[in-house]
Every structure is written in C-alpha cells, then in structure tokens.
Amino acid sequence: MESERAILAFAALAQSTRLDVFRLLIAREPEGLPAGDIARHMSVPQNTMSTHLAILTRAGLIEAERQSRSIIYRAKLDAVRELAFYLVKDCCGGRPEICAPLIADLSPCCTPKNEATQEAVHE
Amino acid sequence: MESERAILAFAALAQSTRLDVFRLLIAREPEGLPAGDIARHMSVPQNTMSTHLAILTRAGLIEAERQSRSIIYRAKLDAVRELAFYLVKDCCGGRPEICAPLIADLSPCCTPKNEATQEAVHE
DNA sequence: TCCATATATCGAGTAATCTCGAATTATGGA
DNA sequence: TCCATAATTCGAGATTACTCGATATATGGA
Question: Which listed site, A63, A115, B39, B45, has its alpha carbon 20 to 30 Å from B16?
Fold first, then answer.
C-alpha cells in the first residue's frame, strides 16, 4: 500500500458518520446492507449518506454491488489488514523486537477456539 | 479506545506531511528527533511543522520531551496497537473466523526468525 | 542582563470538506 | 409507456483545515 492510498483511507475514517458506517458494515459481514438502510440506520439524509459511501468506496474500504433496485455495500476486510500492516510496517522492517508486542496484543482477540475456522472466503 | 480518539488519530494521519513524520519517528524509535530536525528532514517551514507536531501530539500518536533547548518527539507505539485493534475489534467481537486471517497476515513481518535483518540507518 | 538558539502561537489568505435541497439517473412493475 | 422506488450528482452556504510570515516564549551561555 502506497501512502496516497493510506491517506485516502485515513481521511475516509476521520469522520464520525463514515467511521460508524464502516464499523456497521464490518459487523454486517458478509451480507452487507443497502444504501438506504445505512442512511436510516444513521439518521442521515439519503443523499448525504450517498456522498459518504462514495468516499469510503473511493478509499477502497467498502465496495458496492447492485442488486435489483438496491445497491448493497460491504466492508472490504482486506483493507483493514492493509491499513494495519501499513501502520506497523516501519518498525517491523528492521526491528521485529519493537513490533512483535503489537502483534501479540492483537492476537488474543482472534484466536479461534477450535480449528474449524481455517478457510475464509477470499478472492 | 473510543471513537472520538480514533477520529483524532485518523485525521492526524490523513495528511501527507504528518503521515511521513509519524513513519519517520517510528523508524527513529526509541531515540526520537528534535522538532527542528524533523522540519529540515521534510523541507517544511519550522512553524508549519510545529503545527503538525501539535496535531499528532493531541491525537496521542507522538509525545514530546524537552531536552535542553530542543524538544524531542517520539512515536507512541501503543497508539499504533490501539488503532489497529480498534479497526479489527468489530469483527473479532463475535467472529474470530473473519478476523484471524488478518492477524495471520500481520504476524510474519514480526517473527524474528533471523536476527541478521538489521537495517542500516540511511538517509 | 543581553544575545543566540529552538520551538510555539497568532493572524490571515487560500483551499478543502460537510451538509442538504433540488434535480438526475437507473431499475422493476403495471 | 407511465409510475414508484432507490440511489447518485449538482450547487451553494457554512465550517474546518492548511500554510506561512510575523511575533512570542523558553532555554543556555557570556
């Protein structure tokens, strides 16, 4: 990930409505939500939400798919991984001893209790 | 980490000079750099850089320590951990199967398999 | 105390962002 | 074709952010 894309992503998340939308869509993985539902969920006018969704999409954080008259939005979990990696990359580059504790702190929340969770849908 | 702090951090990083400064300071851990050196490094006027450093500090991403006439700035690695955790928290909450691959992808960069991977300080 | 160095704050001009009413485009059904 | 629904784009006013010259504050030394 180059810095220009990282800046787009950070700018997209630096706004309360958009951050809430992104977290909502992560919670709704993998079904996603249509644009109108998202606007109602956040109590924001429909056209204002459309602008926010366009910004999140342009930043690569979510993606859109038309389904009949609705447009379904979904979070792109890869983007989360890339952003987090971009943040820690510099210290990992030459100094794993600095970065390892960060990973150690992140891991516990995601350690699957059983091994039935090996494959994730991935492109 | 509550959302207001996350927004401050994202906004601070959503600007090219500040993102570069933050990454520079991560690379210079744990010694840090005085404000003037940072400004020269980025070819930015001293007072402009002071404003950027204040924004990064207010966001909790870096910290300042006076040392004689200089003020040394250092990256707060805890902030990286918190931000990354905030990003993945929602999927980790109920669905470790979604989040585990993210952690798996982050981990390899920090496993100190060969300790000969030291980076020469250059610039 | 006076001066030089190092950094922070103020003020103003410019640019970008946020918001939302109004108009536009796209889809599906009668 | 006409209509209703769903979403996007346009336009403008209000707010916020960026930049930098000028000025102010803080420290150390003579």
Answer: A63
Nucleotide nearest to B35 (CA to C1'): C7
Strand D bases contacted by the protein (CB, 7 Å): 5-10, 17-23, 26-28
> Which tens digit of pLDDT belongs to each residue from B54-84?
999 999 999 999 999 999 999 998 888 788 7
Q: Is it the case that residue A117 has pLDDT exceeding 60? A: no
Mention every residue, 6+ apart, whose C-beta is less than 8 A from residue B16: A3, A7
- Give the gap in angstroms from C-alpha A122 to the nearest C-alpha of chain B: 10
Residue A11 pLDDT greater than 80, yes or no:
yes
pLDDT of residue A17: 97
**Within window 44-83 on A, which residues have Cβ closer than 7 Å to strand D?**
46-47, 49-51, 53-54, 64, 69-71
Q: Taking the CB of residue B50, how many other CB atoms lie within 10 A of it?
A: 16
Q: Which residue has the higher pLDDT, B23 or B118?
A: B23
Task: Answer whether A40's CB lies under 8 Å from A33's CB.
Answer: no
| pLDDT more than 70, % of chain B | 80
Residue B116, number of CB atoms within 10 A of its CB? 5
Q: If you compute the radius of gyration of chain A from its CA atoms, what whole number of angstroms results?
A: 17
**Shortest Cα–Cα distance, A68 to chain B (Å):** 28
Q: What is the pLDDT of residue A27?
A: 87
3-class secondary-structure state, position B64: strand
